[in-house]
Design goal:
The protein is of the alpha/beta class. The protein is built from 12 helices and 10 strands. The chain folds into 3 domains: 4-197 and 351-387, Rossmann fold; 206-277 and 331-339, no CATH class; 280-329, no CATH class. A 7-stranded mixed β-sheet has the order 3-2-1-4-5-7-6, with helices on both faces. A 3-stranded mixed β-sheet has the order 8-9-10, with no helix packed on it. It is elongated and about 80 Å long.
Length: 393
Amino acid sequence: MQDNWTNETFAFPQAKIRIGTLFSGIGAIEHAFHRLNLNHEIVFASDIDKFVKESFLKNYEISQQDWHNDVTKLDATPYKGKVDFIVGGSPCQAFSMVGKRKGLEDIRGTLFYDFARIIKETQPKVFIYENVRGLINHDKGRTWEIVQSVFEELGYCIYYKVLNGRNYGIPQNRERIFVVAFREKTNFTFPTPIDLEHTMQDFLEDYVDSKYYLKEKGIKFVTSSKNRKKRYTQINGNVALCQKANQQFNWHGDFIYEDAEITENNFNDFIFNVNTVEEKYYLSEKVKKYVLAGGTKKFKTGTATDLQVARPLLQTMHKMHRAGVDNYVTHNMGKIRKLTPRECLRLMGFRDSFKIAVSDTQMYRQAGNSIIVDVLIALLKQLDITKYGEINE
């Protein structure tokens, strides 16, 4: 069902919105403002990761003095009255003390404390706090209870809901909780989901470097029945699994199968055939080398595999197999590759105008830790962020 927010125009398109971000990452909200072509100024940003800083400064305009490496050391009082809108999401941490007030004093020593403290110091008109869905149930719900009470203690009217990226235009199952908070009492409803019009295939690059293709060991792992059953991996999915910072380096996540001879009609047969053979039946590298060598003194194997006529099957074949003498077959695994950094960025809502300034390793991490830009766009349109900017008559 299409919702009105997709067609709504901003009330004050020329208004200048002054934004600040904490745990800024690669600037999802900044990129959202760019995509919406909204007038804005980045007042401050903060992230402790030096590689994140490199990506951020490559893509957005901000003075060095307004970039803060350590949020715990950031005194934000000079920014009071100079920022309209703050976005951030601290890492989820259990709070060691749960006092009667359940306010700022209860969360000292956590990064959430610093987020809340900076909200108190700057007093933005509106802020968005984002975190993993598990925050609601973290520490048996006590963490979320304190989060709510702290925001309310700061004098903000809060609304919260779990939103999934696939419901806002991006084919990725990524559920995150979003808190939208207003300094003044405001009626707010979250944007209604829209129909998903794209699949993951629409976000793929046309030409991909050979380094992104898996070798045989990786293919076996990715196509294993264990990973498919537990949804650790997915091949040629329509909706991507939730991106993780390390997904591309432990063979978990989304993968693409490419082969000119494979079509939609026989691809499922390929996957079925690969996965009906359990991993235990594959030879180790040591045994594989032995089998493909000259064979034993009594049974010359040569280098023959995939024989048209099988060698004799005996009751003692299990003993022969242990000796490296048996019938062996090979699997044509085809070409399976991981997503490229650019594809990961696209699946987080970043257009190709986003400049990649770091290594693949860092870019995968940064994409996996980001907020989906399209979800933020839906929120910005729903609350009409221009109402909270500076309007020059």
